[in-house]
Amino acid sequence: MEVAIAFNLKKKEEDKPPDYFSEYDKKSTILAIASALRSKGHKVNLIEVNSKDILKVFSKQKIDIVFNISEGNGTIYRESEIPAILDLLSIPYTGSDPFTLALTLDKAMTKRIFRGEGIPTPNFQVFKRLNTPLNPDLKFPLIAKPNREGSAKGINVSCVVREKRELYGKVEEIFKSYRQEVLVEEFIEGRELTVGILENGSISVLPILEIDFSTCREGIERFYSWRMKEYQGDKELGLTPTFFCPARIPKKTEEKIKLFSLKAYLALGCKGLSRIDLRLSKSNVPYFLEVNPLPGLDPEESIFPMMAKAAGIDYVDLIEIILNSSLEKRCN
Asked: What is the Cα–Cα distance from 255 to 261, expressed in whole angstroms?
């Protein structure tokens, strides 16, 4: 099979914030996916998505299916760009469609879907202007974050605030740096969990993964921030979280989380695979935060392959499952 991998390559530019390209993939990730596909007998073509002529590039290629890990090129709903082009050209691709990718990139809209489906999520408010009055029903501590970013961009220890003046200072900072509305939600003190969902003939929920920050240096964030993701394992920075998969949670809590996760996956129209992030309160109440239909697939660092491994799926087979399940779904 002729498989093209559509990707954006991680890079650094001096005039950009340090997390500007954090959603993009490292070269080693792209090569790992290509190697996995080739080991299954596929011919692989690498296509970096950084050109205004990308429509022509795809239309001139002999492609049976695109393995899509592209995050797009900076537009509001950028993750939808490549799938929309591929739909136009009738080229199958892995993962979710443009609508789902646009919807899930908007954290507040995703949370509204959660509410409509009865899925617990922290109370929240969207700040479209700096002078937006704070909803008095929201309870501190609160966390402020850019509403339409992935890879925890714009989220660090200073985003968790405990009084109004601190909140408005953080909201102003996010407005200036990311030029978009700010999501403000109640911060759930407790544990960080993530759930992987994978389609392989049927939809299955992978073992829940827990991120334990107690092994990190004191004074840094106790949630999966951009810095934590980017530099995890760095002992000098003290960014050394411990991963437990399956998570160390009661069986009833596990069953409840898996049920809600599957409900969220279906409600948002996800296809192929997704990762769902949540916080578990100290009283074991799960609060769902967001859904990522384009989870990282680095074989060494990304969480999704960790969960697949805990389910008995090695990396090469995981990549083949993602490819085949998406091709079958789009051919039916």
From this structure: 10
Domain end among 163, 186, 209: 186
Within a domain: 111: no
Tell me: do 173 and 211 sit in the same domain. Answer: no
pLDDT at position 41: 97
**C-alpha distances in angstroms, 293 versus 94, 172, 198?**
10, 29, 10
Neighbouring C-alpha atoms within 13 Å toward the C-beta of 119: 27
Distance CA 127, CA 181 (A): 6
C-alpha to C-alpha distance for 152 and 228, rounded to whole angstroms: 9
Low-confidence ranges of the chain (pLDDT < 50): none
Rama region for 190: left / alpha / beta (φ>0; ψ in -120 to 50; rest) = left
- Report how far apart, in Å, the C-alpha atoms of 21 and of each of 78, 229, 233, 251 are: 13, 13, 20, 38
Task: Tell me the torsion sign for CA atoms 25, 31, 35, 41.
Answer: positive
Please give the C-alpha separations between residue 8 and each of 26, 65, 158, in angstroms, as whole numbers.
9, 18, 29
> Measured between alpha carbons, how far is residue 329 from residues 182, 200, 322, 323 in Å?
36, 10, 11, 10
Separation of alpha carbons 223 and 191, rounded Å: 8
Summarised one tens digit per residue, pLDDT across range 182-223 is 999 999 999 999 999 999 999 999 999 999 999 999 888 888
| Distance from C-alpha of 113 to C-alpha of 118, rounded to nearest angstrom | 9
- List Cα–Cα distances, 147 to 39, 125, 161, 322, in angstroms: 39, 10, 17, 28
Q: Is the full-model pTM beyond 0.70?
A: yes
The CA-CA-CA angle for residues 214, 217, 223, to 5°, reads 55
Q: In terms of residue numbers, what domain contains 144?
A: 123-186
